[in-house]
Specification:
Four copies of one chain form a homotetramer.
Chain A (H helix, E strand, L loop, with lengths): L6 E4 L3 H12 L4 E4 L10 E3 L2 H7 L2 E3 L24 H6 L4 E4 L3 H4 L10 E3 L4 H22 L8 E5 L3 H12 L3 E6 L2 H8 L4 E4 L11 E4 L8 H7 L4 E4 L9 H6 L3 E4 L3 H5 L1 H22 L1
Chain lengths: ~290, ~290, ~290, ~290
């Protein structure tokens, strides 16, 4: 572990609470702003945004930093905390970590002048979040499907990070796993784990799925495909807005479909916070090496 | 498949609906009573209890047959259906399947004269239900625990059917699995799957679990043990009433504890119905062989 | 760990060498006889059979104790070591552990007067040895089969201890696993792990296996069954002599068949020795409890 | 499946025999040269190299095409088959598939003028071959290690294709899996499967491995590292020549080390041939799409 300086955590939800506890457990000093309604161990100091910034070497914004382009996203705060030019100016000379950094610049253009490390853009962040995403998808499937996952027939559309994590989880649960992909190397990869591989373009020719998980961010499951292959299925769409399912057609066809987004923060905030922490550590490590 | 006669299904919940659909899909004639509020495919005939009995070779009671020692357990029925001496008399010469058959005799002593096969007492019924029980326990754990199952540290107290199924499921989810047992052969079995094995009597000397699953039907987790090893854990008790956890002590110690019973019917009625069906087929097969 | 006395190890192969090293690592004094051609750590004393017996509280015979009904089975010995009335008499008042204890009584009837604990008869001994047996079977399959285990179609005849261990291993290797059994509860158990279950009596109606593992100790694979279902298979028979395969018919049909016996000692003597050690500890523990 | 033309297979070992049988089973006409000592089904025609080339649309060279820069690699041939300018000229207008195509140009410069598709350079070829490589490594480990893989502590150095396949296999065998990598995203990936992750640069600080698998193609296991972390280990080096192990130092330190190369063709020629076949089909598919 590096000998790190003080961290200042500005706002955030249960993920950020997990991050704060994690930093404190690593023996670091932590200032926090926007957490009046949360409890922490002794080494964590609640403070105003100005104090937190002044006392910290590293400043961490939540994911997202703001939901209204004006105030800090801080559901555990009693009051609104405004992000403005002055706050941005105070942050010069700080190492700043942020989830979706462009959201910050909507609050003040001065954020553009700062050196901001976007932890949500890091490859390892995405890889590790694929696990809580897959577990969240499984939890939804367990809640909605009337049979057991064991022995069920599951289709996963797409073999990116989430598709890979989901196939691992479903195989571990003893489901019968079918995965679709487009590229020959992905098809090879799917087969090399002894799952059934199909071309994404041929999903519409297949049928008999109990649960369908989509991870592809454009409409794969249009009315035609739904009518062909999903009549007796539940569909869980994990692709970001607008997703890969024609939800209106699904509703018309009486196919149960769920659009499940931002699962890590919802179903496993503790793990999601630990992932933010370790990604920030990775960035600090690299910076130290490059200095 | 044997060339079977008509089945009559008397009451029951979504498990029995799954059983009815399964029998119909196997090409059998099915009469049903107590399902006014349910829909079935064409080969299923809704009828009065008298008609159903008259037309059927096999009669299936639900699990449990009655909840009030007087009327049939039939949540999908519009009206109450009374079980009495006359009904019992009508059933002579029928092959009767029932879940917990002693509940029937509370409605009429005449049931004692009948040949009733208790499917819930069969070994394969218990073995197959261990899977939906384990998945139900996992679903609760996923809902309650703030981290991912992947990488979590789980204790399973007891290595009977449910303990075995649960360890399989948790290992498949990439948890770190610790299992307790009493007998050397169970300890050997646990170790042979590369789980960590501990003696049940020594649970109180261990600590650091994220999630604890109890399957032992007497109090293992008393106040002392809870205080020692479960301070930061969630406890899910799967043992039948009164269970293996001192829930009052848990509440006092602010340890989240859940008593989860009858999971198969609740979380996977479709599978639970299929299990009833295949168990009944097993009984019929054996009877045919023995005839 | 109990505060144990000195162990005397009389003969044996590499399993016993592993046992000796394990006892020494546990901090115990160990006398050994019949190991002139082996090297040990300092806390192990090589001695004559008389000395070893005199100095030890516990005496361990190998598995088997004798191969010729006269001398100790001791492949690492320079000289023959005779087992006779005098040796048997010396052993009164010792706690004696032996693998197949009836083999001892062929050397001298006096052994019948002694209290001998047969570790090979213990349930946990059999359970733990199922793992090296399964791994040995896999090793043979990998050597003989020209494809990968991943994606291959494997039949396991019988779902006892070895069948269970083997199905776990093959599933972990991503094979397609078919298991046969006779009893409904075993069929239920097989299905509950999402393997394909078939009745042992119906093996002859199936076909298309790459590798067949037999664990049933009577002839399941007769000429008729071999011709039907094993034409393009390799057969590995794990059942004790005479096994479950008509080897002559297999040879006539040009089906590659291997009778693989006593695998733990052959392929994993280190593990096999550790299993003997932990089984002896279990017996001592029980005796201590019962005293 | 495309409606393909005749295939001509020029030489090769058991992998190519598996390829030939696979093509024949797919209903294709196949001419073969260099297989006098092998038997095939009826739809395969043995012919001279000139005939094979003349009759075929697709020509497949083995892996490698030549071992002596002059004759075809054809261990099943009775006679030497020379590759020269004339053969190369005959091949114009043919679609040619070859394993390591630069080896061909050593026999005649005229091969440079031809359109040769190198199947061994394809990503899916490498991905699929990682499985037989991992199984081959496991087979060696099982043969050399005196314990069971179950419960053993294994280090895999490197998390490329082979490292990934090997970790999957060892985890499936219930080993304790430690994997080393250099990049944060690989470390994240390793952890996300609940293996123990270490930095490759820190291998030398760790110890206690039963089996070490190297997949990194430069010397990671120098004398210093071997002395520190491999004293009681077996080392299997899967990296291509010169590998990642200082074998001389290992020998001096009495550490058993094995350099295992070209495993797919050696341990699973049937699968290796199927991989060549499906890779060739992929190339033909792409060409057809692009035409």
């Amino acid at each position: 572990m590096l000998n790190l300086g003080t961290f200042g955590i500005l706002g955030g939800d249960r993920r950020q609470i997990s991050l704060i506890e994690g930093l404190a457990q690593d023996g670091l000093n932590v200032y926090v702003t926007g957490f009046e309604n949360a409890n922490f161990s002794d080494s964590v100091t609640k403070a105003s945004i100005e104090e937190t910034i002044e006392n910290s070497k590293y400043i961490v914004f939540p994911l997202p930093a703001t939901k209204d382009s004006s105030t800090l996203y801080a559901p555990f705060s009693k009051n609104k905390i405004f992000l403005d030019d002055k706050i941005a100016n105070n942050l010069s000379n700080k190492k700043i970590f942020c989830g979706i950094s462009r959201s910050l610049t909507k609050t003040s253009k001065n954020f553009k002048k700062l050196q901001i490390f976007d932890y949500a853009k890091r490859e390892e962040f995405a890889i590790r979040n694929a696990i809580p995403t897959a577990e969240g998808a499984l939890e939804i499937a367990m809640r909605e499907y009337l049979g057991t996952i064991n022995g069920s027939r599951c289709l996963i559309a797409g073999f990116g990070r989430v598709g890979k994590a989901l196939s691992m989880v479903l195989w571990g649960m003893r489901a019968n796993v079918v995965v679709s992909a487009r590229k020959p190397e992905d098809i090879a990869h799917i087969k090399s784990q002894n799952y059934t591989a199909i071309l994404t373009s041929e999903i519409k020719k297949t049928t008999g799925y109990d649960i369908i998980f989509n991870t592809i961010p454009h409409v794969i499951f249009d009315a035609h495909t739904l009518a062909k292959c999903a009549q007796n299925s539940i569909i869980i769409d994990l692709a970001s807005y607008p997703g890969g399912v024609d939800f209106e057609a699904a509703s018309r066809l009486k196919i149960k479909s769920i659009h499940a987004l931002s699962l890590p923060g919802k179903i496993a905030p503790k793990t999601a916070g630990a992932i933010i922490k370790s990604t920030i550590y990775d960035i600090i490590n690299e910076e130290a090496i490059n200095e």
